[in-house]
Amino acid sequence: MNMRKDGLTIAVAIATAGRRDILTQTITFLNNQERKPDEFFVCPSRPDDVDVEALSAYHGSIEILPGPVGLPHQRNVMIAASRADVVVFFDDDFLPAANFLTEVEKLFADNPDIMVATGYVIADGARGAGLEFDEGRRLLEADVLRRPPAISPTFNGYGCNMAIRLAPVREHAIRFDENLPFYAWLEDLDFSRQLAAYGRIVQADQLRGVHLGTKKAGRSPGKRLGYSQIANRIYIQRKGNMFWYQAWGGSIRNFASNLVRSFNPEPWVDRRGRLHGNVLALRDFFTGRLDPRNILDM
């Protein structure tokens, strides 16, 4: 793939699982980018997660990379394949503003101390029932940045839209932790904190988009996710990439929310399954058997 002789080179990388149609819509939507990526990777968990013929609607070259099942594995495959200066990870249901990659290039060129940048999410369907594609597009079209763009420190990038400087990743052999299986709850936090030793982790308001939060196949079942809500936090805290009060505070909030809402659950959330997974994780913690990889047996 042709790379630029001057300026920063940018790769777009999308890991996907079980969401073939929304992936096609999202990639076709990426024709909106003013600044085209120098590399474009898609790593599906299975070959039939990608409609290769439909992707011909994208006005550029896309490289499909086979990889093991699991978000960290898939993202690591794309990191290994890239020769770019910056990789931008998009979820398969994230719709970026037309100037997203243009602003990424400016941000990383002007601020060599920035290691990770995450954008401003105009609307996040992951926090509710999810957004339909046309609704997300309308929200993006209506968005107006009403103040000068701000760059502010943040603890970690948000995996649905996360730009990463690859030089320190290569130099220090930093990878997404493959001990966090499947959808890998908080893998973005763990990766960000590994890079925090080498520079800034920021939110940049000029990087804007809509996260549809599509509620379809590809997400972890309730019991697995509930286990990960506790096990992954404690595992990451033990590695030194999260404070103890973040690990336990977040775990308690998730447990309480799943407990209360299990009596009247949202149609799109398996609250009882999540609660069951929370209880199993607490049991394993107190018996010394807690490990994020235990969900592989569920």
Sequence-ordered SSE layout with sheet pairings:
Blueprint: E1 10-16, H1 20-29, E2 39-44, E3 63-64, H2 71-81, E4 86-90, E5 94-96, H3 100-110, E6 114-124, H4 133-142, E7 151-153, E8 161-165, H5 166-171, H6 187-195, E9 200-211, H7 222-239, H8 244-261, H9 271-286
Parallel strand pairs: 1-2, 1-4, 2-3, 6-9
Antiparallel strand pairs: 4-8, 5-9, 6-8, 7-9
If you had to describe this structure to a student in words, what would you say it looks like?
By secondary structure, the chain is of the alpha/beta class. 37% of the residues lie in helices and 18% in strands. The chain has nine helices and nine strands. The protein has helices at 20-29, 71-81, 100-110, 133-142, 166-171, 187-195, 222-239, 244-261, 271-286; strands at 10-16, 39-44, 63-64, 86-90, 94-96, 114-124, 151-153, 161-165, 200-211. Strands 1, 2, 3, 4, 5, 6, 7, 8 and 9 form a nine-stranded mixed β-sheet that branches. Helix 7 (222-239) packs antiparallel against helix 8 and helix 8 packs across helix 9 (271-286). The protein starts with 9 loop residues before the first strand and ends in a 12-residue tail after the last helix. The relative contact order is 0.14. The mean pLDDT is 93.
